[in-house]
Amino acid sequence: MEMKSRGYGGHILHLRLSTLDHEVIPTVRYARWGGGNGLGTALFWDYCKDKTIRDGRDPRNVVVIATSPLCGTMAPSAGGRCEIVGVSCGQYPVSWFSRSNIGGRLSSNMKYAGWDAIVVSGKAPHPVWVEIENNHVRYHDAGKLWGKDARQTQLTLFGMLDRQNQGWGWQPLPGKKDEMTYTTQRPAIVCITPSGENQSIHATLVHDAGNVSGQGGYGAVLGSKNLKAISVMGTGSVKAADPAALVRARFRVKERYAPDVHNPNLQHWGFLGNPMAINFSGGVFHSTRRKACAGCIMGCRLNFDTGYGNESKCQATAWYAHFALQYTKGDQQKAAEIAMRAGDYCNVMGINTYSFSTSLLWMEKMWHKGLLGPGKKIHSELDFSTLGSWEFAKAFVDAFAYRRDIGELFGDGIVQGAIKAGFEKEWRGGELDHPYWGIPAHGYDPRAEVEWGYATILTDRDINSHEFNALYWGLTFNVLQGVPPLVDPEEAATIIAKKLQPYVSGPECMDYSDKNIYSDAVMNLTRWYIHNNRFWKNSALFCDLRWGDLIDTNAPDNIGATGDPEVGEQVYWNAVTGDGIGFVDGLKKGHRTFVLQNAIWALQGRHRDMVHFADYIYEKDLEHTHFPFFMWSTRDENGIWRYEDVMHRRLDREKFEDFKTRFYRAEGLDPATGWPTEKTLRELGLEFAVGELKRHKKLGREA
Amino acid sequence: MNSTSEENEPKFGGMDRRTFLRTLAAAGVTATAGAAFMLPGTNLMVMPNSKGYLVVDMAKCMGCVSCMMTCSMVHHGEASLSLSRIQIQQDSFQSFPNDIHMAVCHQCEDAPCVKACPVEADHIDIVHGNIRTIDPGRCIGCTQCIDACPWLPKRLQFNPETRTVQKCDLCANTPYLDEKGGPGGTQSCVKVCPTGAISYVEKMPKQHDPYAYNVNLRDQGWVELGMTDKDFKLKEG
Prior knowledge:
The complex is a heterodimer.
Chain A (H helix, E strand, L loop, with lengths): L10 E6 L4 E6 L9 H12 L14 E5 L15 E6 L9 E6 L3 H7 L2 E7 L6 E6 L2 E6 L8 H12 L9 E2 L9 E2 L4 E4 L2 H4 L7 E3 L3 E3 L4 H7 L2 E7 L4 E2 L3 H14 L31 E4 L9 E4 L10 H4 L2 H7 L4 H18 L9 H10 L3 E2 L4 E2 L10 H12 L4 H4 L4 H7 L3 H5 L21 H9 L10 H13 L7 H11 L20 H18 L31 H9 L5 H22 L10 H5 L11 E5 L5 E5 L7 H15 L10 H6 L6 H6 L8
Parallel strand pairs in A: 1-6, 7-14, 18-19
Antiparallel strand pairs in A: 1-2, 3-4, 3-6, 4-5, 7-8, 9-10, 11-12, 11-14, 12-13, 16-17, 20-21
Chain B lengths: L16 H10 L10 E2 L6 E2 L6 E4 L9 H11 L1 E2 L7 E4 L9 E4 L8 H5 L5 E4 L5 E4 L9 H5 L7 E4 L4 E4 L20 H5 L5 E4 L18 H5 L13
Antiparallel strand pairs in B: 1-2, 3-11, 5-6, 7-8, 9-10
C-alpha cells in the first residue's frame, strides 16, 4: 500500500538554511520508524554529519520536527502532538541529543500539507522565516520579525498570510486554477522569541497562545540557526487504511473511557478518562472553556475571558503560584491571577517555566542569606522584596529572555550559573534541586518515584511520562479529598503488571518498598517505560497526559485502555497504517530507537560512569515534595500490599550501579560502558551505525 | 427568496412564507412525495422541511476539531479540515468566548443552495428525511450553490480533487460509518464530540436568525467541571 494511503504525508522536507534552499525526501525510506521520536532520530543520524557536538547551538546541529501517521486524524489524543529532536542545550555536563514535544495544530497542518517531518540543518545567513503552503516552500526575510515576541510574531504573520483579506472565511490559496485549494483555517505557526534569538537555553518554541516545546532549549537552537518561524498551511488530507475501524474505535473509546461531562467523576483515577483541566494556579476562573489539541478526547487546558492565560496549563500555571500567594498574603484569587499572568508571559516571551520550578525558590533563599543582590555573589538588580508580584515576574522573565541581570549568569543553565557563581556545593548537596543532567526535578523525586528518575538518568532529559505517575495523583487526590483509595494496592499492581507483559511476570514490579526498588522487576518496568515512551508516546505521538492508560476507574473493571484489543493504541495505529502490529511490536520499535539514541549519546561522549544522579540523591533523604507525603504501592515480607509513604529515603549508589549493569545487559548495551554492541545493532537492523561507532572507538564490547 | 432576514421575506396575500406553505398543504398542494417543486406561475420553490438539524454550543467547544476530522473520515475515508462539512475556526489570541466559532449547515427551510443549483444536483433527499444534499454524480462544480449560501463561512465546500461541491447530509451518505446515518440515525460529529457541544434536534431552529443555531448545551455537570453555564449571544451564522 502506498505511504499516502496509510496515514503518511509521503514526504519529508529538508530545510537547508545555509543555502536557503530545500530538498524533498521520500518518507518511504524511513517507514519502519513510524514517526515522531523514532523518525526524528533516524533522520538526525543521517543528516547530522558530526554527532560529537555537545551543545545544540552548534551550527552543525540538526533539528527534526516530526509527525506520526496518526497526526491530523481523530485517533484519540494523538492527532495533534508533534515531536522535536536534535542536540539540546543547557544540560550538564553534556547537552545530549534529546527530544521535546509540542501540541496544538502544527503536526496536523504538516500532515495536511503532505509533510511527515521537517529537517532543519545549517544556519541561515540572516534571520528568516519559512512559509509552507501545501507543497510550496518559501523563505522570507525575518528582519522585521526579529525582536518580536510569540504573540506579535504570529499575529503579524497571520495578517501577512491572509492575502485575500477574508478574515479566514473560505480562503482560496494561491495557485493555478487546477491547483486551487480552500480552507477556513489559520496557518499553524511555530516561532521563537527574543529569548531564542538571544540563545538563552531556557528558550522555547511557541505555537498559538500556549503550545510550547519547553525542554531541550530548542528555541535557542533555532535562534542559533537564524530561523524565526515556520508557518504551515495544509489543505489536503490524511488517508486511513481502514477508515471505518478508526471511526469505530474512536466511538468505542469514548463510550468506555471518556469522562461523562454531564456527570463527571472528580475522584477518577487514570488519564484517558480524567475530566479535570490541569491548572495549578489555585484560583477559580469560571468564565472559561476547555481547550484541546487536534483530536483530543478531553482538553486539559483552558481559555479565559481575562485576556491572558489561554492554553496555559500545568507548570506554566504553577511556577509562580507559591510566590504570588506569599506576596498577596494568602489572597488565593488575586495570587492565581498573578500566577496566570506570569505563566502567560512566559509563553509570550518563550521561556521554559520548568527552569524556574525549583531554582526561584533557591534564589529567594540566596537573597534572604544576602548572597543574591546588587554586587553580591549572584549579582541582580531585581527587587526580590517584591517577589510574588506581577511586576517582579515580568522583570524576572525579561531578564532571562534578554540575558541581562540575573539572566546573564543563568543564560546557559541554572546549574552552570550556580557553579560559575561558586555554588557547586549547594547544587551537589541538593539545596538547588537539580537531580539529573543539570535539569530540575519534575516534582516526582527519584528517591520516591523511582521509575521516573531511573528513566530520566538512563535517557537524556526529564522523562516526563506519566503513566505510572497516575497512581500517585489518584492516591494524592483521594487523600486530599478525604476518601479511601478508589483502587486497592494489590488490584492496582496486578492491573498494571498485566499491561506490562511480557516485560514483567507479576505485580512485584509495582512494589516500591526500599528493598524492591533495585529489583529485576522494577528494572524491567523501567525498560517497558522507556520503550513505551520512545514509540507509543513519542513516535506514534499519543499524548502523555492521556496515554498510557494503565488503570482507569471509568472502566467497570478499572482496567485502562492501553494495549486493549478494541481501543488500545495499536488499534488506531493499525486502522490508519494497515500495519497490523501488536502493542508489544510497538515497544520493540521503541527499543530500537532507544538503542540508536544510545549510539548518538556514545558519540557525544557518554559513558556509563557519567550516568548517575546528583550526589544528594544518594546522600540525603527526600524530605520535601509537592505534598508532605508521597504515596505508592508496596508489599511487605508477608506479601501484604499497602499504600505507603515512600518519602524519607535516599538511593543506594552501589545498588543503583548494579541496577544499571542489569539494565544495560537487558537492553543489549555493553554493561561496562553503556554503548551499543555490534550484535545488538545488527539484530535491531541498525547495522548502519556500526561503522561510525567503530571509527570513534565507541562500539560496545560483547558480553 | 434568497433574503437573509425575515423582514425582507416576500409576503403572499398578507401571509408570511411559512403560513403560506401551511395553507397550501391544507389545500392539498404538497410537494409530491416530499420533493421540491416550483409553484406554477411563480418563481417560488416549495420544499418540505428537513426532519433534523444540527445545533451547536460555541462556548462548550474545545477546538479539538475531532468533529471535522470524523466528518471527512466517514464521508471520504480521509481526515481533512477542508473536506469537513462542519467548520470550527479558532484564534487562541482572542478571549473566551470569542476564540472559537462553529459553523454547521442550517438545512435551511428555503434552502437557497438547492434553488441555485442549475442541474438539480443540490436537492431534497426524501429518502433521508428531506435533507438538503448534493448528488456528486450530477454536480458540475459551478459553485453557484456556494455563492447562494447566505452564511459565512459558507456551509458548502468545494472539493478540488473531484471538482464538485459537498454539504452536510447529517451523515446519510457515509460509506465509512458502520451505523445508519441521516435524520433519526447517527451524526458522526455529534457522536464524536468529547464535550457534547453539538446536538441533533428535530425542531427547526428559527430561520434567518444568525443566533438561532448556537444554543446552550451546558448543564450542571459542566459547572461541576469548573466552567460556566451562562448564556452567550454568539452569532453562529
